[in-house]
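Journal club side-thread
Mid-discussion, someone asked how the predicted structure for our own chain would compare to the paper's figures. Pasting it here so we can look after the session.
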Amino acid sequence: MTETTGRAGGVTALLGASTLFSWGFIIAKSIPLPPPTIAMWRLLIGAVVLGTAGFAMQVGWPTRWRTIIAAGVFFGLHQLCYVAAIKVTSVATVALVGAMMPLIVAISSRRLLAEPLPKSYLLWAVIGIAGVVLVVTARGLATRGSIYGLLLAVINLLLVSGYFLLSKRARMDGAHTVTVTAGVLASSLLVVIPTALYATPTVPMAASSWWMIALLALGPGNGHLLMNWAHARVTAALSSLVLSAVPLLASLWAHLVLGEPYGVRHVVGAVLVAVAVEGARRAEP
């Protein structure tokens, strides 16, 4: 496999991950349960399924666990903040703050991952973020719970960026996609389970809630599998920029499923993100 072919496959996988992640906003907000309960059961389902797959495939488990456990702690805290944020404020607010991840990753990846960063990347990142901002502010930001929700969204941004960089580091250490993802999900339960034990209810009672949690775990949840696979083929900076498509896709699903408006600003924003991703891809050495 050539480097160009590998990068193309990585970008394709990230677009698939973006599609899955974008549905997570709608599914998580629709589950009538506390954030810790949702996070615990979706992570547990994902860890069991991927752990079983790892044993069945006999791909071997990582030999270095420190980075994976650290990534899991960041990921578990991200799950709690992410679900809590979209419960108290608008999806647009959470998506808008999360769209800043490419800049954080761009600033950090050179030092933490020793990856080359083209000088023009920050320009492409700003263009991509402008497209996302255009989309998620098309209807204005909700004010209900705005201060608390905004704070949670900012914390979530830092946590998901830390998880992203640490999972990239784990893949660079040679860990297999399936087992590193299973390890991260299992490690994240270390911080999620203690909070879920104090949630009411801790165990979902309605069958519909179980189905939605399973869908969240095996649908959007497996976007992390695609993302971790792409880590070995695409730089962290480009990966984070491709993932900025998530709020754009989420706004489209909201239009198709919930009847929310979708107009010219959404189209222009999507075009800006597409241009930014292609520009960053071409600029990479």
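Post-session note: The chain has a mean pLDDT of 82.
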